[in-house]
């Protein structure tokens, strides 16, 4: 869906209160002639998002709001239609007044919205990688070409490198990884890693869950699964390369020996803007620009991934397929929350995930309801595993 000359692109922004959501709001405000915010969704888990939505509703003249969790009704806007419950959030993705759904919800909670958006034939600007990790086998057959526009910077980079190319000419996709805040740490030192240290990513400012996933390298494991579904390539063609500077956002190598890379500043503004303006590019002045004359010191190295238990577990779950990735994701979400709450240690995250994967009786993926049931069961098992470790 392209911004037309006659009217701006109408956007439903799900996860507006998060890191990606706030950057998306800023972009929409910066391009009023191109983008119009129609609907807002969030979790409202701490009760803060409903109150935070009020000035946004007024500023952007938002018409629809949905919060997964209900809180003080005195904070409800009188100008927007407000609804509560997870289904209400997903329903925003099917509104007839919406052209593009930006899914910036964190975790498997974003899956129903992605599914609803595709079924309603909306363009899906996707930050919520967990949708594809858990439900890629259901979502991809619903999507027409370019209906899912990735916001994850690595996938946006690969998507940009593949424009005009035939997927059959691709040899390998190379996802870059900064290595996170604990790059080079020994297993002994990792035992003492604290939430505050895990949240201090060297290059990116992100929400808490993805920051911890970057520290364990689970994030890279999830991204490999996301890339497998999004670009339809086997896992044998997906590679991870350490690139500490986070300037090259990913690369594609082709059968003729050519390699394309996409570079940019370390900011999510560019991939969000690209997803919203695709297939055009809009001029951007608010974001830092990459100074090409300063790029003399870029490093690339094949990582030793044997030390990263979470990445190994993600790879194993990916290769086994079926409902294993849903269990991997659910257990990881619970374990990360427990780590952030100081209930388990950093290295316990992989232990919780491993236990849940070992207990799982795999199934073929057949429906969203089945995936949500598998997700719920894995969460209960992960909570029990975290309790015994804590
Ligand atoms: N941050 C980045 O730079 C970045 C980069 C690449 C990809 N991503 C991906 O983008 C997604 C969002 O990441 P983030 O860093 O922006 O996360 P975040 O800062 O933690 O924000 C998460 C958002 O999801 C909402 N949410 C949580 N549970 C929900 C539910 N049940 N229903 C509806 N909304 C819910 C939250 O609302 P409440 O706060 O009201 O609960 C919040 O708005 C993740 O999948 C992440 O992997 C992020």
Question: Care to describe what's here?
Answer:
The protein is an alpha/beta fold and 390 residues long. It folds into 2 domains: 9-150, NAD(P)-binding Rossmann-like Domain (Rossmann fold); 160-254 and 301-389, Rna Polymerase Sigma Factor, Chain: A (Orthogonal Bundle). Helix content is 42%, strand content 15%. The protein contains 15 helices and 11 strands. The strands form 2 sheets. A 7-stranded parallel beta sheet has the order 4-3-2-1-5-6-7, sandwiched between helices. The protein is globular. The chain starts with 8 loop residues before the first strand and ends with a helix. The protein binds NADP nicotinamide-adenine-dinucleotide phosphate. NADP nicotinamide-adenine-dinucleotide phosphate binds next to helix 1, strand 2, helix 3, helix 5 and helix 9.
Strand order in the sheet with the most strands: 4-3-2-1-5-6-7
The biggest beta sheet, please? 7 strands, parallel
Structural class: alpha/beta
Radius of gyration: 20 Å
Whole-number count of domains = 2
* Top-tier CATH class of the largest domain: Mainly Alpha
Q: Looking at the structure, what is the overall shape?
A: globular
Strand content: 5-15%
CATH architecture of the largest domain: Orthogonal Bundle
- What's the name of the CATH homologous superfamily of the largest domain? RNA polymerase sigma factor, region 2, helix turn helix motif
What is the average of the pLDDT values? 95
Oligomeric form of this entry?
A: single chain
Bound molecules: NADP nicotinamide-adenine-dinucleotide phosphate
Query: What's the number of helices?
Result: 15
- Helical residues, percent: 40-55%
- The low-confidence parts are none
Order of helices and strands: EHEHEEHEHEHEHEHHHHEEEHHHHH
| CA distance, first residue to last residue | 48 Å
Number of strands: 11
CATH topology-level fold name of the largest domain? Rna Polymerase Sigma Factor, Chain: A
